[in-house]
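Internal tracking record. Fields below are filled automatically when a chain is submitted to the structure queue. Please do not edit lines marked as system-generated. If the sequence contains nonstandard residues, flag them in the REMARKS field before resubmitting.
Queue: standard
Priority: normal
Entity type: single polypeptide chain
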Amino acid sequence: MDVFRIEGPVQLSGSVSINGSKNASLPIMAAAILTAGKSIFSAVPHLSDISVFGQLLGQLGCQVTRSPNGDLCIDSTVIDNPVGEYEIVRKMRASICILGPLLARCGRAKVSMPGGCAIGDRPVDIHLRGLRELGAQIRLENGYIVAEAPKGLAGKDIFLGGPFGSTVLGTANVLMAATLAKGQTVIESAACEPEIADLANCLNKMGAKITGIGSPRLIIEGVRQLQPTEFRVIPDRIEAGTFMVAAAITAGQLRLEHCRLDGMMAVVDRLRNIGVTIDSAGDGCVVARSGPIRPADITTQPFPGFPTDLQAQFMALLALGEGNSVIIEKIFPDRFMHVAELNRMAANLRKEGPVVIIAGVKKMMGAAVMASDLRASAALVLAGLAAEGVTTVNRVYHIDRGYERIEERLNPVGAKISRESI
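SYSTEM-GENERATED OUTPUT FOLLOWS
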Protein backbone atom coordinates (compact mmCIF):
# COMPACT_ATOMS: atom_id res chain seq x y z
CA MET A 1 0.00 0.00 0.00
CA ASP A 2 1.32 3.46 -0.92
CA VAL A 3 1.57 6.45 1.40
CA PHE A 4 2.49 10.09 0.82
CA ARG A 5 5.30 11.63 2.83
CA ILE A 6 4.88 15.40 2.73
CA GLU A 7 7.42 17.92 4.04
CA GLY A 8 6.12 21.34 4.97
CA PRO A 9 5.62 24.17 5.01
CA VAL A 10 6.21 25.07 1.38
CA GLN A 11 5.19 27.93 -0.89
CA LEU A 12 3.91 26.87 -4.29
CA SER A 13 4.79 28.86 -7.40
CA GLY A 14 4.49 27.99 -11.07
CA SER A 15 2.03 26.54 -13.57
CA VAL A 16 -0.24 23.49 -13.40
CA SER A 17 -2.50 22.20 -16.18
CA ILE A 18 -6.01 21.07 -15.22
CA ASN A 19 -7.02 17.66 -16.55
CA GLY A 20 -10.35 16.56 -17.97
CA SER A 21 -13.22 16.10 -15.55
CA LYS A 22 -13.57 12.74 -13.83
CA ASN A 23 -17.19 13.42 -12.93
CA ALA A 24 -18.00 14.26 -16.55
CA SER A 25 -15.98 11.39 -18.03
CA LEU A 26 -17.72 8.57 -16.17
CA PRO A 27 -21.32 9.19 -17.35
CA ILE A 28 -20.02 10.04 -20.83
CA MET A 29 -18.29 6.66 -20.91
CA ALA A 30 -21.62 5.09 -19.91
CA ALA A 31 -23.32 6.96 -22.77
CA ALA A 32 -21.27 4.89 -25.22
CA ILE A 33 -23.51 1.95 -24.28
CA LEU A 34 -26.41 3.64 -26.06
CA THR A 35 -24.94 3.17 -29.53
CA ALA A 36 -23.27 0.36 -31.47
CA GLY A 37 -19.86 1.38 -32.76
CA LYS A 38 -16.64 3.08 -31.71
CA SER A 39 -16.68 6.41 -29.86
CA ILE A 40 -13.55 8.38 -29.09
CA PHE A 41 -13.32 10.62 -26.03
CA SER A 42 -10.40 13.01 -25.49
CA ALA A 43 -9.16 14.66 -22.29
CA VAL A 44 -10.35 11.70 -20.20
CA PRO A 45 -7.93 11.61 -17.23
CA HIS A 46 -5.77 8.61 -16.33
CA LEU A 47 -7.36 7.70 -12.99
CA SER A 48 -8.11 4.49 -11.14
CA ASP A 49 -11.86 5.30 -11.28
CA ILE A 50 -11.63 5.57 -15.08
CA SER A 51 -9.81 2.22 -15.23
CA VAL A 52 -12.42 0.56 -13.03
CA PHE A 53 -15.24 1.93 -15.17
CA GLY A 54 -13.44 0.68 -18.26
CA GLN A 55 -13.31 -2.80 -16.70
CA LEU A 56 -17.04 -2.57 -16.03
CA LEU A 57 -17.75 -1.68 -19.66
CA GLY A 58 -15.49 -4.53 -20.76
CA GLN A 59 -17.54 -6.90 -18.65
CA LEU A 60 -20.66 -5.80 -20.53
CA GLY A 61 -19.02 -6.64 -23.86
CA CYS A 62 -17.42 -3.33 -24.85
CA GLN A 63 -13.81 -3.00 -25.96
CA VAL A 64 -12.07 -0.16 -24.12
CA THR A 65 -8.61 1.01 -25.18
CA ARG A 66 -6.34 4.06 -25.05
CA SER A 67 -4.89 5.38 -28.30
CA PRO A 68 -1.22 6.47 -28.45
CA ASN A 69 -2.28 10.12 -28.00
CA GLY A 70 -4.22 9.27 -24.83
CA ASP A 71 -7.76 9.32 -26.26
CA LEU A 72 -10.16 6.81 -24.74
CA CYS A 73 -11.76 4.56 -27.35
CA ILE A 74 -14.93 2.61 -26.52
CA ASP A 75 -16.24 0.10 -29.05
CA SER A 76 -19.76 -0.78 -27.91
CA THR A 77 -20.75 -2.77 -30.99
CA VAL A 78 -21.47 -5.77 -28.77
CA ILE A 79 -23.32 -5.63 -25.44
CA ASP A 80 -23.88 -9.30 -24.65
CA ASN A 81 -23.84 -9.27 -20.85
CA PRO A 82 -25.99 -6.42 -19.43
CA VAL A 83 -24.90 -7.14 -15.85
CA GLY A 84 -22.91 -4.88 -13.52
CA GLU A 85 -21.24 -7.37 -11.20
CA TYR A 86 -20.80 -6.65 -7.50
CA GLU A 87 -17.02 -7.07 -7.53
CA ILE A 88 -16.60 -4.05 -9.79
CA VAL A 89 -19.65 -1.93 -8.95
CA ARG A 90 -18.88 -1.99 -5.23
CA LYS A 91 -15.68 0.00 -5.86
CA MET A 92 -17.34 3.10 -7.28
CA ARG A 93 -20.74 4.73 -6.96
CA ALA A 94 -20.68 6.11 -10.51
CA SER A 95 -21.06 2.51 -11.72
CA ILE A 96 -24.81 3.01 -11.30
CA CYS A 97 -24.65 5.14 -14.48
CA ILE A 98 -24.76 2.01 -16.64
CA LEU A 99 -28.32 1.22 -15.49
CA GLY A 100 -30.17 3.75 -17.66
CA PRO A 101 -28.29 3.20 -20.93
CA LEU A 102 -28.34 -0.60 -20.56
CA LEU A 103 -32.08 -0.53 -20.02
CA ALA A 104 -32.60 1.74 -23.04
CA ARG A 105 -30.44 -0.30 -25.41
CA CYS A 106 -30.99 -3.87 -24.22
CA GLY A 107 -34.41 -3.63 -22.61
CA ARG A 108 -33.01 -5.14 -19.44
CA ALA A 109 -30.22 -4.60 -16.93
CA LYS A 110 -28.96 -6.13 -13.73
CA VAL A 111 -26.66 -3.91 -11.67
CA SER A 112 -25.32 -4.39 -8.18
CA MET A 113 -26.14 -1.74 -5.61
CA PRO A 114 -23.17 0.67 -5.83
CA GLY A 115 -20.32 1.36 -3.42
CA GLY A 116 -17.84 4.26 -3.34
CA CYS A 117 -16.45 6.70 -0.77
CA ALA A 118 -17.44 6.48 2.89
CA ILE A 119 -19.23 9.84 3.01
CA GLY A 120 -22.62 8.75 4.29
CA ASP A 121 -25.80 7.21 2.95
CA ARG A 122 -26.48 7.91 -0.74
CA PRO A 123 -29.62 6.05 -1.81
CA VAL A 124 -30.52 5.41 -5.46
CA ASP A 125 -34.28 5.56 -4.98
CA ILE A 126 -34.62 8.68 -7.16
CA HIS A 127 -32.80 6.90 -10.01
CA LEU A 128 -35.22 4.00 -9.80
CA ARG A 129 -38.27 6.25 -9.50
CA GLY A 130 -37.28 8.09 -12.66
CA LEU A 131 -36.70 4.91 -14.65
CA ARG A 132 -40.02 3.49 -13.44
CA GLU A 133 -41.72 6.64 -14.74
CA LEU A 134 -40.25 5.81 -18.15
CA GLY A 135 -41.91 2.40 -18.00
CA ALA A 136 -39.26 0.16 -16.47
CA GLN A 137 -40.19 -2.71 -14.18
CA ILE A 138 -37.69 -2.73 -11.32
CA ARG A 139 -37.09 -5.07 -8.42
CA LEU A 140 -34.30 -5.68 -5.93
CA GLU A 141 -32.89 -9.18 -5.92
CA ASN A 142 -29.97 -10.41 -3.78
CA GLY A 143 -28.28 -7.02 -3.67
CA TYR A 144 -28.88 -6.31 -7.36
CA ILE A 145 -31.18 -3.87 -9.13
CA VAL A 146 -33.02 -5.81 -11.83
CA ALA A 147 -34.69 -3.57 -14.43
CA GLU A 148 -36.72 -4.66 -17.44
CA ALA A 149 -38.61 -2.81 -20.17
CA PRO A 150 -40.01 -5.53 -22.44
CA LYS A 151 -42.22 -3.03 -24.28
CA GLY A 152 -39.56 -0.35 -24.46
CA LEU A 153 -39.40 2.98 -22.64
CA ALA A 154 -41.90 5.81 -23.11
CA GLY A 155 -41.36 9.50 -22.47
CA LYS A 156 -43.04 11.19 -19.52
CA ASP A 157 -42.87 14.28 -17.32
CA ILE A 158 -40.64 13.33 -14.39
CA PHE A 159 -39.75 15.19 -11.18
CA LEU A 160 -36.30 14.24 -9.86
CA GLY A 161 -36.03 16.43 -6.76
CA GLY A 162 -35.00 14.84 -3.48
CA PRO A 163 -34.48 15.81 0.18
CA PHE A 164 -31.00 17.18 -0.57
CA GLY A 165 -31.84 18.76 -3.92
CA SER A 166 -31.38 17.36 -7.41
CA THR A 167 -29.41 14.19 -8.05
CA VAL A 168 -26.48 14.34 -10.46
CA LEU A 169 -26.14 10.64 -11.22
CA GLY A 170 -29.91 10.17 -11.12
CA THR A 171 -30.30 12.91 -13.73
CA ALA A 172 -27.59 11.26 -15.84
CA ASN A 173 -29.31 7.87 -15.67
CA VAL A 174 -32.78 9.12 -16.59
CA LEU A 175 -31.42 11.49 -19.24
CA MET A 176 -29.54 8.71 -21.03
CA ALA A 177 -32.48 6.34 -20.88
CA ALA A 178 -34.86 9.02 -22.19
CA THR A 179 -32.82 9.61 -25.36
CA LEU A 180 -34.09 6.29 -26.77
CA ALA A 181 -37.57 6.40 -25.21
CA LYS A 182 -40.63 6.88 -27.40
CA GLY A 183 -41.97 10.42 -27.35
CA GLN A 184 -41.04 13.37 -25.18
CA THR A 185 -39.55 13.29 -21.69
CA VAL A 186 -39.40 16.34 -19.43
CA ILE A 187 -37.09 16.15 -16.42
CA GLU A 188 -38.01 18.72 -13.78
CA SER A 189 -35.54 19.51 -10.99
CA ALA A 190 -32.73 18.11 -13.13
CA ALA A 191 -29.19 18.59 -11.86
CA CYS A 192 -27.59 21.68 -13.43
CA GLU A 193 -23.96 20.72 -12.82
CA PRO A 194 -21.54 21.40 -15.72
CA GLU A 195 -20.86 17.66 -15.86
CA ILE A 196 -24.53 17.00 -16.69
CA ALA A 197 -24.44 19.73 -19.33
CA ASP A 198 -21.34 18.07 -20.80
CA LEU A 199 -23.12 14.71 -20.91
CA ALA A 200 -26.12 16.29 -22.63
CA ASN A 201 -23.88 17.99 -25.19
CA CYS A 202 -22.17 14.66 -25.89
CA LEU A 203 -25.54 12.92 -26.29
CA ASN A 204 -26.68 15.60 -28.73
CA LYS A 205 -23.53 15.06 -30.75
CA MET A 206 -24.49 11.38 -30.85
CA GLY A 207 -27.86 12.36 -32.35
CA ALA A 208 -30.03 12.93 -29.28
CA LYS A 209 -32.49 15.83 -29.13
CA ILE A 210 -32.05 17.53 -25.77
CA THR A 211 -32.94 21.14 -24.97
CA GLY A 212 -32.76 23.15 -21.76
CA ILE A 213 -29.15 22.09 -21.18
CA GLY A 214 -27.73 23.72 -18.03
CA SER A 215 -31.21 24.43 -16.61
CA PRO A 216 -33.32 22.46 -14.10
CA ARG A 217 -35.78 21.57 -16.90
CA LEU A 218 -34.47 19.20 -19.54
CA ILE A 219 -36.64 18.29 -22.54
CA ILE A 220 -35.74 15.15 -24.46
CA GLU A 221 -37.31 14.08 -27.73
CA GLY A 222 -36.69 10.36 -28.05
CA VAL A 223 -34.92 9.09 -31.18
CA ARG A 224 -34.74 5.62 -32.73
CA GLN A 225 -30.97 5.32 -32.45
CA LEU A 226 -27.78 7.20 -31.65
CA GLN A 227 -24.45 7.24 -33.48
CA PRO A 228 -20.86 6.86 -32.23
CA THR A 229 -19.06 10.17 -31.81
CA GLU A 230 -15.86 11.98 -30.97
CA PHE A 231 -16.08 14.28 -27.96
CA ARG A 232 -13.74 16.27 -25.69
CA VAL A 233 -14.49 16.27 -21.96
CA ILE A 234 -14.56 19.59 -20.04
CA PRO A 235 -11.78 20.48 -17.55
CA ASP A 236 -12.21 19.25 -13.99
CA ARG A 237 -13.58 22.08 -11.84
CA ILE A 238 -13.01 20.10 -8.61
CA GLU A 239 -9.35 19.52 -9.45
CA ALA A 240 -9.08 23.22 -10.34
CA GLY A 241 -10.64 24.18 -7.01
CA THR A 242 -8.25 21.88 -5.15
CA PHE A 243 -5.22 23.50 -6.80
CA MET A 244 -6.65 26.95 -6.07
CA VAL A 245 -6.72 26.00 -2.40
CA ALA A 246 -3.17 24.64 -2.73
CA ALA A 247 -1.98 28.10 -3.82
CA ALA A 248 -3.99 29.76 -1.06
CA ILE A 249 -3.00 27.49 1.82
CA THR A 250 0.73 27.84 1.01
CA ALA A 251 0.58 31.63 0.44
CA GLY A 252 1.82 30.93 -3.06
CA GLN A 253 0.92 31.72 -6.65
CA LEU A 254 -0.20 29.22 -9.28
CA ARG A 255 -1.19 29.67 -12.88
CA LEU A 256 -3.87 27.11 -13.72
CA GLU A 257 -4.04 26.22 -17.40
CA HIS A 258 -7.28 24.90 -18.93
CA CYS A 259 -9.35 26.20 -16.03
CA ARG A 260 -12.90 27.36 -16.76
CA LEU A 261 -14.06 29.86 -14.15
CA ASP A 262 -17.60 30.06 -15.54
CA GLY A 263 -18.57 26.89 -13.69
CA MET A 264 -16.78 27.86 -10.47
CA MET A 265 -18.23 31.19 -9.40
CA ALA A 266 -19.31 30.01 -5.93
CA VAL A 267 -15.77 28.76 -5.31
CA VAL A 268 -14.17 31.93 -6.70
CA ASP A 269 -16.48 34.08 -4.57
CA ARG A 270 -15.53 32.28 -1.35
CA LEU A 271 -11.81 32.38 -2.13
CA ARG A 272 -11.89 36.10 -2.87
CA ASN A 273 -13.74 36.71 0.41
CA ILE A 274 -11.08 34.66 2.21
CA GLY A 275 -8.36 36.92 0.80
CA VAL A 276 -7.24 35.09 -2.34
CA THR A 277 -6.77 36.89 -5.66
CA ILE A 278 -7.99 35.12 -8.81
CA ASP A 279 -7.37 36.71 -12.20
CA SER A 280 -8.32 35.31 -15.60
CA ALA A 281 -5.34 34.57 -17.85
CA GLY A 282 -5.71 33.05 -21.31
CA ASP A 283 -7.67 29.80 -21.01
CA GLY A 284 -7.03 29.68 -17.27
CA CYS A 285 -6.32 31.88 -14.27
CA VAL A 286 -3.69 32.98 -11.77
CA VAL A 287 -4.39 32.28 -8.09
CA ALA A 288 -2.38 33.89 -5.29
CA ARG A 289 -2.48 34.84 -1.61
CA SER A 290 -0.15 37.19 0.23
CA GLY A 291 -2.25 38.40 3.16
CA PRO A 292 -3.94 36.55 6.02
CA ILE A 293 -6.64 33.89 5.55
CA ARG A 294 -9.90 35.56 6.52
CA PRO A 295 -12.71 33.49 8.11
CA ALA A 296 -15.73 32.49 6.05
CA ASP A 297 -19.10 30.78 6.26
CA ILE A 298 -19.69 28.08 3.62
CA THR A 299 -22.80 26.03 2.89
CA THR A 300 -22.61 23.25 0.32
CA GLN A 301 -25.44 23.24 -2.20
CA PRO A 302 -26.31 21.81 -5.61
CA PHE A 303 -24.84 23.74 -8.55
CA PRO A 304 -24.48 26.69 -8.91
CA GLY A 305 -23.95 26.64 -5.14
CA PHE A 306 -20.74 25.67 -3.38
CA PRO A 307 -19.76 22.09 -4.30
CA THR A 308 -19.65 19.41 -1.63
CA ASP A 309 -16.57 17.96 -3.37
CA LEU A 310 -14.53 21.00 -2.22
CA GLN A 311 -15.82 21.15 1.35
CA ALA A 312 -12.90 19.20 2.87
CA GLN A 313 -10.25 21.20 1.01
CA PHE A 314 -11.72 24.51 2.17
CA MET A 315 -11.86 23.18 5.72
CA ALA A 316 -8.11 22.62 5.63
CA LEU A 317 -7.62 26.20 4.37
CA LEU A 318 -9.92 27.81 6.94
CA ALA A 319 -8.24 25.84 9.74
CA LEU A 320 -5.37 28.33 9.29
CA GLY A 321 -7.65 31.36 9.11
CA GLU A 322 -7.84 34.32 11.47
CA GLY A 323 -10.98 33.89 13.56
CA ASN A 324 -13.91 31.48 13.42
CA SER A 325 -15.45 29.91 10.32
CA VAL A 326 -18.49 27.70 9.80
CA ILE A 327 -19.06 25.00 7.20
CA ILE A 328 -22.55 23.51 6.75
CA GLU A 329 -22.85 20.33 4.68
CA LYS A 330 -26.28 20.10 3.03
CA ILE A 331 -25.54 17.48 0.38
CA PHE A 332 -23.97 14.65 2.41
CA PRO A 333 -24.44 15.54 6.11
CA ASP A 334 -22.07 12.77 7.26
CA ARG A 335 -19.17 13.84 5.02
CA PHE A 336 -16.86 14.82 7.85
CA MET A 337 -14.47 11.93 8.45
CA HIS A 338 -11.56 14.27 7.69
CA VAL A 339 -12.36 16.40 10.77
CA ALA A 340 -10.64 14.05 13.21
CA GLU A 341 -7.59 13.70 10.93
CA LEU A 342 -7.16 17.47 10.56
CA ASN A 343 -7.44 17.79 14.33
CA ARG A 344 -4.54 15.33 14.59
CA MET A 345 -2.54 17.98 12.73
CA ALA A 346 -3.41 20.58 15.43
CA ALA A 347 -6.42 22.09 13.71
CA ASN A 348 -9.26 23.21 15.99
CA LEU A 349 -12.46 21.82 14.48
CA ARG A 350 -15.71 20.93 16.23
CA LYS A 351 -18.45 18.95 14.52
CA GLU A 352 -22.07 19.60 15.48
CA GLY A 353 -24.34 17.46 13.30
CA PRO A 354 -24.04 18.66 9.68
CA VAL A 355 -22.01 21.69 10.84
CA VAL A 356 -18.30 22.12 11.56
CA ILE A 357 -17.13 25.13 13.57
CA ILE A 358 -13.54 26.09 12.76
CA ALA A 359 -11.40 28.08 15.17
CA GLY A 360 -8.40 29.19 13.15
CA VAL A 361 -4.91 28.31 14.42
CA LYS A 362 -1.60 29.97 13.58
CA LYS A 363 -0.02 26.74 12.38
CA MET A 364 -0.70 23.06 11.88
CA MET A 365 1.76 20.30 12.64
CA GLY A 366 2.73 17.32 10.53
CA ALA A 367 1.30 13.98 11.67
CA ALA A 368 0.38 10.51 10.47
CA VAL A 369 -3.17 10.69 9.10
CA MET A 370 -5.59 8.36 7.33
CA ALA A 371 -7.49 9.21 4.15
CA SER A 372 -11.13 8.11 4.32
CA ASP A 373 -12.34 9.18 0.89
CA LEU A 374 -11.24 10.93 -2.29
CA ARG A 375 -11.75 14.57 -1.34
CA ALA A 376 -10.73 14.07 2.29
CA SER A 377 -7.40 12.71 1.07
CA ALA A 378 -6.91 15.86 -1.03
CA ALA A 379 -7.60 17.98 2.06
CA LEU A 380 -4.95 16.11 4.04
CA VAL A 381 -2.38 16.61 1.27
CA LEU A 382 -3.16 20.33 1.25
CA ALA A 383 -2.84 20.52 5.02
CA GLY A 384 0.50 18.70 4.79
CA LEU A 385 1.83 21.31 2.37
CA ALA A 386 1.20 24.05 4.94
CA ALA A 387 1.96 22.15 8.16
CA GLU A 388 5.29 22.25 9.97
CA GLY A 389 7.21 18.98 9.80
CA VAL A 390 6.38 15.74 8.05
CA THR A 391 2.86 14.55 7.29
CA THR A 392 2.25 10.93 6.30
CA VAL A 393 -1.01 10.34 4.45
CA ASN A 394 -2.09 6.71 4.46
CA ARG A 395 -4.44 5.08 1.93
CA VAL A 396 -3.49 7.34 -0.97
CA TYR A 397 -5.33 4.98 -3.33
CA HIS A 398 -8.28 7.25 -2.52
CA ILE A 399 -6.58 10.27 -4.06
CA ASP A 400 -5.51 8.25 -7.11
CA ARG A 401 -9.22 7.82 -7.87
CA GLY A 402 -9.63 11.51 -8.68
CA TYR A 403 -6.22 13.19 -9.13
CA GLU A 404 -3.78 12.02 -11.78
CA ARG A 405 -0.24 11.72 -10.31
CA ILE A 406 -0.84 14.63 -7.95
CA GLU A 407 2.65 14.44 -6.47
CA GLU A 408 4.30 14.64 -9.92
CA ARG A 409 2.27 17.73 -10.75
CA LEU A 410 2.75 19.60 -7.46
CA ASN A 411 6.44 18.85 -6.86
CA PRO A 412 7.63 20.93 -9.86
CA VAL A 413 5.88 23.99 -8.39
CA GLY A 414 7.42 23.66 -4.95
CA ALA A 415 5.78 20.75 -3.11
CA LYS A 416 7.84 18.08 -1.36
CA ILE A 417 5.71 14.96 -1.71
CA SER A 418 7.15 11.47 -2.04
CA ARG A 419 5.18 8.32 -2.71
CA GLU A 420 6.39 5.41 -0.62
CA SER A 421 5.29 1.78 -0.38
CA ILE A 422 4.79 0.24 3.03
